[in-house]
Amino acid sequence: MLEVIKEETQHPDNEDYGMHVTVLMSHGAHGVLYGTDIKPVKLLDVFDLLSSDNFKSMDGKPKVVIVVACRSAATDALIERVEAESGEISTCRNGVPSTLSHLLFFSSNVDCLNII
Fold first, then answer.
1. 112 assigned to active site
2. Which end of the chain has less Cβ packing within 10 Å, N or C?
3. Domain at 2-106: CATH code
């Protein structure tokens, strides 16, 4: 999943567009989606790839991310342990998060299942 998103951010045609929309539909848990290989993909990693730091042709342009997935708390303990072990660091420029231009839509609330 991350490789596909990274490839998309590298397309030179993106400079011609005024915004970018990413739709992710998958199984998920709190803070993660599961790829076709059933390995968890952290949403923070997805947002990092779409940040202005990594998606240069969309710097300063709106990026809409629509996530259609469960956000169940059933795996929160595992996810929290993975996040703690990974030592994730938020990226900021001049005190402003590089993901500030993201507009996020989730099809379910935290601790809720998504019925499609």
1. no
2. C
3. 3.40.50.1460
